[in-house]
Amino acid sequence: MLLCLEKIEEDSLERTPIAIIGCGGMGRRHLTGLAALQRSDFNNVELVAVCDLNTQNAEDLADEARQQLGARPRVFSQISDLVSAVPQVVGVDVTTDAGSHHKVAVECLQAGLHVQIEKPLAITLRGCNRILEAARAAGKVLSVAENYRRDPINRLARALIDDGAIGTPQLMIETSIGGGNQIAITPWRHQKFTGTITLDAGVHNADILQYYLGDVESAFGRSHLFEKYRYNNASAGPGGFYAKWSSQYPDRIEATGDDAMFAYIRYKNGATGQWIYHHAAHGQARRAREVYGSKGSLIAPGDRNGRPLKLYFDGGKEISDGQILEYAPSYRLQPVAAQLFGSECVWTYSFPFTETDAKILATEYYEFADCIQNQRQPEVTGEVGRRAIALVYAVCESGLAGRPMTLDEVEAVAVDAYQRDIDEHYKLV
Ligand SMILES: NC(=O)c1ccc[n+]([C@@H]2O[C@H](COP(=O)([O-])OP(=O)(O)OC[C@H]3O[C@@H](n4cnc5c(N)ncnc54)[C@H](O)[C@@H]3O)[C@@H](O)[C@H]2O)c1
After folding, report:
1. Any alpha helices (H) in 139-177, and if so which ranges?
2. How far is the CA of 22 from the centre of ligand 1 (A)?
3. What are the tens digits of pLDDT across the range 94-140?
4. In the chain, which end has fewer C-beta atoms inside a 10 angstrom radius, N or C?
5. Which CATH code for domain 150-344?
6. Is the CB of 53 within 6 Å of ligand 1?
């Protein structure tokens, strides 16, 4: 009887018709998120169209959609054609490369569509501001698909901090070191005008730094371009989704975009941050995420690996098993995440990367459609997405100015020495 009722509820869920714009690697990954959502009791999205300037990429994604979702979406190469041919589409999921976000998002918002967009929200702060203005003018949902914070382990970390498990936070250390001189997923991630790896990947860390401890006040640091040339090792990229493209990249590309950044951070709440994002490092790779507080410390395992968090207290006390939940009484995953990950109080999990990735992306889709249907704001609004980009560029602008840079002045574009040539390239200034 219970099962019957659940089935009826599932079938009665309204499905919001959407289109995916951008059918490259992340478009393919997003499709697995839709498939995971479809298999759950929270299937509130229907993919009706896909669009890519590269028609082959769009056709291929439509074929994959037929396999994974059971229906083939319509295929377009131009957003304007999609909008006029499929008027039932009310929202789009933008998974185009970072340098195109401001153009694609503004076109969609002006066409009256709600927008979910992959991080980074835009290539510069001026790009972000254009998108925010368009969303405001259109009165549409703007949701940034920032996935790392949605990992249940990061949700638990945040609850532990909020619930005072380590006392007053004093220091957060976020470290990502590795990368060597290989092409990072795609060549565009090494060009200043299309989205450097420091922006494209660093924005995840910039979001986590602020998700854990709140808004950053200022950053003092600098960014670098260490590896002038990057080499193709034909990597299939995260989850293996890029293999069909990476074999066609040139053997060597010349990089124009920074690949490392080092910063000292001041939080609004008085805490300090140390951030290293070094994607040109040779030798020993290293990742670390640590928070030190007035009562103890929290060591986080990174993203999407499901390994447990660890709490440390004076006298050698360590908590790294299910007991950790006692230190985070407010921790509850939202129902869709709880079903996908198997519990509303997940403290560890073990799925293959692609499965974990799909579950997290499914929660993004669910929230996006729910916001459209219930006229509510998403968790990662345009403003939140912009704040993460402001932290990345605060470091870059600080390096040129030789002084700490507040995120407020970066957001207001009161400084732009680092970003100006990008903005000129896109005629944003
Ligand atoms: N959240 C994550 O973990 C994660 C991981 C990888 C990528 N991403 C993000 O996803 C986005 C896409 O990255 P990717 O690795 O898939 O890039 P990609 O180069 O593999 O794919 C981009 C696709 O967009 C298409 N495109 C470009 N401009 C377009 C336009 N105006 N209209 C229609 N199609 C257009 C391209 O032809 C290409 O097929 C980026 O913002 C990236 O930062 C996020």
Report:
1. 152-162
2. 6
3. 999 999 999 999 999 999 999 999 999 999 999 999 999 999 999 99
4. N
5. 3.30.360.10
6. yes
